[in-house]
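Suppose you are handed only these lines of text.
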Amino acid sequence: MGFAPHLPIRLDPREIAPDTFLLRSAQPALGAPLSVSLNSLVIRGEEPVVVDTSTVANRDAWLEDLTSLVDPADVRWIFISHDDEDHTGNLAQVLELCPAATVVMSWALTERSACSVAVPPERLRWVDPGGRLDVGDRTLLAIRPPVYDSPTTRALYDPTTGVLWASDTFATPMPAEPVDDVAEIPPPMWAEGFAMFHHHALAPWLSMVDHDAYAAEVRALRALDAEVVVAAHTPAITGPSVATAFDHLAALPRTVPPPHPDQAALEAALAGAP
Ligand SMILES: [Fe+2]
Ligand SMILES: [Fe+2]
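From them, the structure of the protein bound to fe (ii) ion can be written out as follows.
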């Protein structure tokens, strides 16, 4: 059978702020006419930073995109937002390719990923939520976002460009034909997809959280006043969409998500496969 649902769709890198590039691919969703972003980030400042390392399935394209933007010998930092395989898929390769790079993690992330990728301790830097990372011409801020699927998750904010890397937060499906910006997703589809992904694929505990405590976390992230929000599983969020995205995020504990594809959808997908 030629059905290959997890082959990534290649998308070109996009400069989303000065010297700040979103490395992109997308994955067709199984059982639904949707696709899902699989992004990472490069900040090409004085000390270049690679933010997350994409997936094994996307290795060749990702390494090609990365090395087209930055000389691997110049990469000084590899920031890993959390220990899921769609964020650490090429960490071993980048470690080898970029001998001057230090891996920015935390104690918990190091421990949780040690069985798959062993980073030499002398190449580690541990930064906890609220911690800062001086990368020469800017100081980046590590933040625990309100929603995550690993306890090690840290978002990363660059105050010099106003770009927030939100890790898995703000995840949403997009049309089967990938788009560059959430503004290109029909608004009802964005709202429903955003709720479906956060409740079903990231944080099923959202319906159990204390509303006031959660709202305070969202307010704190919003207070950064990010100009552009990018993350692993969403097209770029820019302009007026930033405020809408935070509204969607704030509403999650009170939002009843649509159902996710079930066994019947799987059978339909299999029946329609070539
Ligand atoms: Fe994740
Ligand atoms: Fe992810």
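What can we learn from it? The first strand starts at residue 9 and ends at 10. The longest helix spans residues 187-202.
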